[in-house]
Specification:
Number of helices: 11
CATH architecture: 3-Layer(aba) Sandwich
Number of domains: 1
Shape: globular
Helix content: 40-55%
Radius of gyration: 18 Å
CATH class: Alpha Beta
CATH topology: Rossmann fold
CATH superfamily: HAD superfamily/HAD-like
Largest sheet: 7 strands, mixed
Number of strands: 7
Structural class: alpha/beta
Length: 244
């Protein structure tokens, strides 16, 4: 199959970045390198800080005068999933729009995608502003205080505002920041903490290790009964859209 069949439901794909597209959690690695990770991350996981508070406090511990170039130099040796570019092409052949959603920062996401020749992918993430003599500051253009998700950048809102009502939604992720968006998806690929959440909440999902597995599982599904709408996800999307 090289193009979407006429009359078939449109398919939209959303992928987390840290720990999913990138094999490592780059955001955490940056805070470990430049800030006070251990103390602040413990406070986040203990519920003493929201995710937005965590990011603001973390960036405030970065050295004054830190530059974007310093972050670029640090992240240069981190790798994307070896099969992600192949997955992007897999989606493009089928006319499936693919969007990157992250609770990290576009300051490192966009350069890493560009280095892989994938700079045309839409990215929804937080932003860090480097101000010269002071520590960088965090900004959250996709924040939604009405949603209780474990995010500063609400992935669920990105999802529901980027798709038509009849879309089939595929979500690929690995962490706590993916749980809310995954609940609103029809087809979920999950590993690590997202997989544990899906198991606990009985959310149907495909476990995966790399995007090689995602491609193989989708090919098998397409060759069988095809992609299907998940009724509970469709209802959740409609309710979320109305509430916004």
């Amino acid at each position: 199959m090289s193009v979407r069949e006429e009359g078939a439901a449109p398919v939209y794909v959303f992928c987390d970045f840290d720990g999913t597209i990138a094999r490592d959690d780059i955001g955490d690695a940056i805070v470990r390198r430049f800030g006070d990770f251990d103390r602040l991350h413990a406070e986040l996981m203990d519920g003493k800080l929201s995710v937005a508070q965590y990011w603001r406090a973390s960036l405030a511990t970065f050295p004054a005068g830190l530059r974007q170039g310093d972050v670029d130099d640090f992240t240069r040796d981190f790798q994307l999933d070896a099969y992600f570019a192949r997955f992007v092409e897999f989606c493009r052949r089928r006319r499936w729009p693919l969007t990157v959603v992250s609770d990290g920062f576009e300051n490192y996401i966009r350069p890493m995608l560009a280095a892989a020749g994938l700079d045309d992918l839409p990215v929804f993430a937080n932003r860090a502003l480097f101000t010269g003599d002071a520590a960088p500051t965090a900004h959250f253009p996709n924040a939604d205080e009405a949603c209780g998700c474990f995010c500063a950048s609400c992935k669920r809102n990105v999802l529901i505002t980027q798709i038509p009502d009849d879309a089939i939604v595929i979500y690929v992720g690995d962490g706590l920041s993916d749980t809310c968006a995954a609940e609103h998806a029809d087809v979920i690929f999950a590993r690590d903490r997202l997989a544990a959440y899906c198991n606990r909440e009985r959310l149907p999902h495909f476990p995966f290790n790399s995007f090689f597995d995602v491609i193989a599982l989708l090919e098998t599904t397409l060759a069988g009964r095809g992609l299907q709408l998940r009724h509970q996800a469709q209802l959740k999307r409609r309710r979320a859209f109305i509430s916004e």
